[in-house]
Amino acid sequence: MKFTDTGTLINWQLDDIHIIQPLHDKADGGSRGGVYLCIPNFEELSPPFALKHGEYRITPCDSDLPHQKNLTAPADINWGTVEVITDWQELTEADSKTLTVSTRIRAVSDTALIRPGFHPYFSISPHSVIDIADTHIEIAALPHDSLRVHHAKSLASPVKLSTADYTVSMACNISPLKDDLALAFGIWSDKKAEYVCIEPIIGKQPDPDGLPTPLTLQQGEELVMVFTIRAERVGFAG
């Protein structure tokens, strides 16, 4: 596996198949593709809660696994300071591959607000579909470059992506478990680049139409997340 100096996985393949859309620069600035952890920007919490990808992707970290970095809010914004340790492991079998990403977020300040997510950009083909429990999503029907949020029925709800070349299932394990935890999947597709981003977002129970709201960690308190992506080389059925 190859990473940037900020801990973003550049690509992930099953033999000759690009499961993860390779990381690339956009013509108008910024980048797309790869896989990275997402923590909100340190900013005031005012409704509606701003959709921000956060500082993690632009903050340098250790070049060796596990990656480690500290994020600190500006003094006038009460988001606090967190330590983030992320490790990656992969298992290769015949016609399948599994990527396991474990992340530990620990509050360093008296309190810290977090709303972590996980950002894999999957390569797609025509007629690719996503299944979240009993929700069936045709990627071709998604609006271009516009986030759609789908709430998971439980924290253990997996998501499945089916393409012409492979299927991939993704699940999230969270500890410690709390009654007010919620999981949602933020989904958007860039038709021109032929990829879809499926982002598990973790926080407190949201409003009916909103994203999960930030969690508060007390100093020394931790949230541990394990994301598992399993890819299999199979034909697209449908």
Account of the protein in words:
With 238 residues, this protein is mainly β. It has a single domain (12-232), classed as Beta-galactosidase, Chain A, domain 5, CATH 2.70.98. The chain has strands at residues 12-14, 17-20, 24-25, 31-32, 35-38, 67-72, 81-93, 96-107, 111-114, 117-123, 129-132, 135-138, 148-151, 159-162, 167-175, 181-190, 195-204, 215-218, 222-232. The strands form 5 sheets. It has an 8-stranded antiparallel beta sheet, with no helix packed on it. A hairpin with a 5-residue loop joins β3 (24-25) and β4 (31-32). It comes from Methylomonas denitrificans. This is Aldose epimerase. InterPro entries: Gal_mutarotase_sf_dom, GH-type_carb-bd. One of its GO terms (molecular function) is catalytic activity.
